[in-house]
Amino acid sequence: MIIVKPGAKIPVDGAISEGSSFVDESMVTGEPMPAQKKIGDLVVAGTMNTSGSFTFKATKVGSETLLAQIIKMVEEAQGSKAPIQALADKISSVFVPIVLVIAFVALGVWLFFGTGALGFSQALSYGLVSFVGVLVIACPCALGLATPTAIIVGVGKGAKEGILIKDAATLEKLHKVNTVVVDKTGTITKGKPTLVDIINLSNQKDEELVSILASLEKKSEHPIAHAIVNYAQEKKIPFAEVSNFEGIQGKGLKGSINGTDYYVGNVKLVGDLKVSFDVVRIEEFTSQGKTPVILATKEKVLGFVMVADEIKPESIEAIKDLHALGIKVVMLTGDDEKAAKYIGSLVGISVPLDEVIAHVLPQDKLAKIKELQGRGQIVAMAGDGVNDAPALAQADVGIAMGTGTDVAIESAGITLLGGDISKLVKAIKLSNMTMRGIKQNLFWAFIYNIVGIPLAAGVFYPIFGWLLNPVFAGLAMAFSSVSVVSNSLRIKAKKL
Fold first, then answer.
1. For residue 320, how many other CB atoms are within 10 A of its CB?
2. Alpha-carbon distances, residue 411 vs 190, 372, 381, 415 (angstroms)
3. Which end of the chain, C or N, has fewer beta carbons within 10 A?
4. For 218-303, where are the alpha helices, taking DSSP H only?
5. pLDDT digit of tens for each residue in the chain (496 aa)?
6. Burial letters for 210-240: b for 16+ Cβ neighbours within 10 Å, e otherwise?
7. If 0-12 CB within 10 Å is exposed, 13-18 middle and 19+ buried, where does residue 87 land?
8. Is 384 an active-site residue?
9. Runs of H (alpha helix) within 30-167
10. How far apart are CA 190 and CA 188, in angstroms?
11. In whole angstroms, how far apart are CA 265 and each of 131, 137, 251, 286, 310?
12. With 0-12 CB in 10 A as exposed, 13-18 as middle and 19+ as buried, what is 411?
């Protein structure tokens, strides 16, 4: 039996046997609203107790806990990844032996055919010039520089834009992505409850209504109360003196301000007061994933506020830009289906082109990534929680929000500083730009060889009397390297 005090982390999985509290399970479920826990409810290792104190019985410890299972899934997903072999390495493995063969063939041809026409001494001289010229002009320095220079510049540019790229393979793979899977909480939304709507049914000003609400909620330990109090503090709305404060279990609270008794809570509390109220209007908001907090007196309802996980302002633009790049978006969330589809529609995730999947657990996210990959999709996954870590590791490209958990950042190949999802679009554009730069570099690395090798080998000598001096072959080889480096540096100047 384990006692958990307010603010403490839950050490193992178990079931509550005494007391009640609100537990922040965002690490596992991804949802920002702390969940109410009472006797008989299950709690998970690693989650945070926010307010009350309770005792629970340990049912799973060590490697059996949900957190240990998530870590195991991450390890399996990371271990199954095959490294991407660079294009330049493949080319070099074929190109270098071919050049050596050409150099020896050139020397042999000069000696075989040139001895009769020019004499052995002259033929050997020209043969050695050709042999050295071919080796010098074909020296694959530019080929070796083509990929790393572009990637170094690309990674540096990304860092400047707040996009941290873990390795070159990730940057290379990103330009092929055709499906982006996003976690809702902390990625599309801000990941913490905030006051989003004020519906005033009284003749008082909105500020007065919020002042009464915030003054009462300031004495409450409920997680939603913090959202209302924070809103009042941000808007510099004054707090009033509260007397006769009393918490009403499972329904809300009551208190007196300037001699008037006020009640704050949910629909059940208003039902107990037996005052007329439009419940349909409340249901309309709750279907959007918002939580109502109603303010009433004994005679009437004065108004209500809605607390929800607010959408990041940059999310709408980011989804629009992803669609413009021809990328399908899949949103995963632990929310119920109605709320998930509503949030999806607000940011432009439109079914059937895109997908919105609700009631999702960590293993479901991993399974969804595998399913998409099984359909031949190249998948990028963006998330921020421990619950996203297995999916981030499994995805072709894992993208973590910089505001997220350490395990998510560790599992991902790319981290977006500040948790700004619009940087995801920039990262894809950067990958396209870098890969284009690599292909251009490979072109410059080869164009000198294609033109220079026949000239160095003496192919044009019988027709035009041209033979490439090894000095000029060295100059051409150096110039190809300069071209490649200069072309890579151009990426730095381009706008994302």
1. 12
2. 21, 19, 11, 10
3. N
4. 223-234, 267-273, 279-286
5. 999 998 899 999 999 999 989 898 877 766 677 888 999 999 999 888 987 899 999 999 988 888 888 777 667 655 554 444 456 667 777 878 888 898 899 888 888 887 877 888 888 888 888 888 888 887 777 777 888 888 889 888 988 888 998 877 888 889 999 999 998 888 898 888 899 999 999 889 999 999 999 999 988 877 788 899 999 999 999 999 999 988 887 788 999 999 999 999 988 888 888 888 888 888 888 888 888 999 999 999 999 999 988 899 899 999 999 999 999 999 998 878 888 888 999 999 987 889 999 888 878 899 999 999 999 999 999 988 788 889 999 999 999 988 777 788 888 889 998 888 999 999 999 999 998 998 888 888 877 777 778 888 887 777 787 777 888 878 888 888 888 999 999 998 888 8
6. bbbbbbbbbebebbbbbbbbebbeeeebebe
7. middle
8. no
9. 66-79, 87-118, 120-137, 141-160
10. 7
11. 89, 80, 6, 14, 21
12. buried
Task: Using alpha carbons, select from 346, 418, 387, 430 the residue that is nearest to residue 175.
Answer: 430
Angle (CA) 428-434-436 rounded to 5° is: 105
Residue 81 vs residues 73, 84, 190: alpha-carbon distances, Å: 13, 9, 31
Has this prediction a pTM greater than 0.85? no
In this structure, how many other beta carbons lie within 10 angstroms of the beta carbon of residue 99?
18
Measure the CA–CA gap between 32 and 224, rounded to whole angstroms.
Answer: 10
d(CA 58, CA 16): 9
